[in-house]
Amino acid sequence: MALPSPLTPAPWPSPWYRTSSLLGRRAGALALSLALGSLVGAPTGFAQREPITPESFVTKAARRSGPAVVRIDTVRTVTIGRLPAQGLGHPFFDQFFNQFFEDGLPPRQRTQREQGTGVIFAEEGLILTNAHVVERSDQVEVRLTDGRTLAGTVVGLDSVTDLAVVRVMSPTPLPVAPLGDSDALEVGDWAIAVGNPFGLDNTVTMGIISNLNRNISKLGITDKRLDLIQTDAAINPGNSGGPLLNAAGEVIGINTLVRSGPGAGLGFAIPINRARSIAEELIRTGKVSHAMVGIGLRPLTPELARAFNRNSDRGFRLPERQGVLITNVLPLSPAEQAGLRVGDVILAAAGARVTNAEELLKAVESAGVEGRLRLDVWRQERQQQVTVVPVDMAALQRRSRAVEDGTYWRRIPLRP
Asked: Among 147, 305, 359, 379, which is most buried by a count of CB atoms within 10 Å?
């Protein structure tokens, strides 16, 4: 998340005056007690207090992984679109601007500075963070907890999962945060967020795991493919890319999203097991492939099917069952090549029932690029099987855009 301008803290009533007064009264009472004790004799025994242990599990967790949490400062150039010519309402200036800037003022560029968080996960200086922290950046700087600032290089990023890997070079060994197992999490487990909200470095907050497997599409974000960890540990702008820790101080997630305004207290993190696999692919190839078949979907329920069948004059009926209805098929996509059509209803994928788009998407991801995925499809009053071969999402999107603007066909060489 991009950082807003620095906040002006609200006035905070100082507790020092009250504490000092309380200490003074306690000191007076103690002196009086000792004086009386010397006159009438000291008590025979005092209650034995347990020694205070100031170190909690949060302290230990923060000490274990905190040194590996870094601040990421980015600089990017932003182009501001063409502005209309304005003459300040004066006839002379209006005429001047209209004469020399008939099409408006030319586009301008400005420098935009933002901050985020990252966590060092390998001794080679590899840092996990969010893609939205570093994408389109002209310059990346990494500030360590020891005060050093190192130049960062983006090894690779994946906008679909909002993950990126940044590398720094250090003449001395760097602290590394241990990675945990996000598959072992349970609702109610402790959750500790470490990051740099609003530029406040090394901020630690605590909460619990509120829920698991929250699909990001349910949050209104449809261009990502993620199931998220939900937590009530405070996550704010600037925490993006920072670690979510368990009670042992192991990284269990990468903080990526927060709900602000009414209903605050909703933070979301990418499970570390997913982040680790994406990071490995980014390190190996610099990019991540995502399987896609090229269809638009909407969930189908028996109630929706009955309503459609009562009012439809399209010559076909929908099955009154759970499934997903195909609403769009991209041209030259694997779905089109497999013979899928608008109006088909997908009932199962790879032998497993499908009741929503997220379940089908997971089946496509599991099949992988160039894999084979068997679909059970309802079409024209009967069920049939269709096999589709997913392709890389980026390649399919480029192909679809080329078809739309007419350039795809010009790229195909003519053969006799």
From this structure: 305
Q: For position 356, which CATH number holds? A: 2.30.42.10
Question: Over the range 271-303, which residues count as b (16 or more CB within 10 Å of their CB) and which as e?
Answer: bbbbbbebbebbeeeeebbbbbbbbebebbeee
Quick: pLDDT tens for 4-61: 433 333 333 333 323 233 334 344 443 434 333 443 444 444 455 555 566 789 999 9
Q: How far is it, in rounded angstroms, from Cα 300 to Cα 378?
A: 12
| Token pair listed for 278 | 């994406």
Same structural domain, 253 and 303 = no
Q: Are 105 and 81 in contact (CB under 8 A)?
A: no
Task: Name the domain count of the chain.
Answer: 2
What does residue 24 show for φ and ψ, rounded to 5 degrees?
A: -65, -45
Q: Are 119 and 163 in contact (CB under 8 A)?
A: no
pTM of the full structure: 0.74
Q: Is residue 389 part of a domain?
A: yes
Q: Is residue 256 part of a domain?
A: yes
Instruction: Give the model confidence (pLDDT) of 134-180 as tens digits.
Output: 999 999 999 999 999 999 999 999 999 999 999 999 999 999 999 99
The catalytic residues are 132, 162, 240
DSSP string, 144-170: -TTS-EEEEEEEEEETTTTEEEEEE--
Supply the DSSP string of 12-51, one letter for each residue. Answer: ---SHHHHHHHHHHHHHHHHHHHHHHHHH---S----PPP
Any idea what the CATH number is for the domain that residue 207 is in? Answer: 2.40.10.10
- Local structure of residue 334 (DSSP, 8 states): H
